[in-house]
Design brief:
The chain is an all-alpha fold. About 65% of the residues lie in helices and about 0% in strands. The protein has helices at about 25-45, 45-55, 55-60, 65-90, 95-110, 120-130, 140-145, 150-170, 175-195, 210-225, 230-235. Mean pLDDT is about 90; it is low at about 235.
Length: about 240
């Protein structure tokens, strides 16, 4: 079992005071995950959160400027936690194919509740990322927020998967696109299996997460065995 003292490095432009460094800050993070899951982004307010933690709105504003920044903070925490897990579970694996499968297993298993994190229910946070996560970057001012590095954690996670993909096939033309597709497909098919089963072939049963890993591995190697060299090389032939 992975046991760690989790204190992830989150973009400091997202908060006024680092919530991981105080007991109140950790309570804000813990209960914001629960409240976002219960009411959704639109109905989430600092007043409701303050009531939940028996504190004041002013105390929350000392940590976060608004609920949007708090939400992006949580999504970034999830991406950083997933990147940590991928790094941990692939660090001593020499064969790139085995490394990719271990990475995919780490990605899928991030949807489970982790006993190594004492102030965030990672299973609940995963639900938020799946159902509400796109609201972090599918928005009008995404380019401006991108300049502040708000999505760097996701880019770094995709980059880590892309590096493993390039180890398997250095000539593959779309490693980053494949990496982001695998990450999105993992979340979508877990969600579909639970709620919209006609949109996936994954059966919501005891081993359904194993099915998701096998599906992602099939997707990845189906692409990597095509030896696709990309549009520029194809045009030069």
């Amino acid at each position: 079992m992975l046991q760690v003292n989790v204190n992830l490095d989150i973009n400091d432009k997202l908060f006024i005071k680092n919530p991981q460094e105080t007991a109140l800050g950790r309570r804000i993070i813990e209960y914001s995950v629960i409240l976002f899951d219960e009411v959704g982004f639109e109905h989430f307010t600092f007043r409701k959160l303050a009531d939940r933690i028996h504190s004041t709105e002013a105390s929350i504003y000392r940590y976060f400027e608004n609920k949007h920044y708090l939400f992006i903070y949580l999504v970034n925490w999830y991406w950083e936690w997933m990147r940590f897990r991928v790094t941990f579970f692939t660090m001593n694996i020499p064969a790139p194919e085995d490394k990719l499968k271990s990475a995919l297993r780490a990605i899928v298993d991030t949807s489970r509740k982790s006993t190594s994190v004492d102030f965030i229910d990672t299973e609940v946070l995963h639900r938020i990322v799946v159902t509400e996560g796109p609201k972090a970057y599918h928005k009008k001012n995404v380019d401006e927020e991108n300049k502040y590095g708000f999505f760097l954690a996701y880019k770094m996670l995709c980059g880590k998967i892309a590096d493993i993909i390039k180890e398997i096939n250095p000539d593959y033309a779309y490693p980053r696109a494949l990496a982001s597709m695998l990450l999105e497909s993992a979340n979508n098919n877990i969600y579909f299996a639970e709620h919209l089963p006609r949109l996936t072939d994954i059966k919501f049963e005891a081993n359904y997460l194993d099915q998701v890993v096998d599906m992602l591995f099939s997707f990845a190697f189906g692409c990597l065995q095509t030896n696709d060299s990309g549009p520029q090389e194809q045009e030069s032939k």
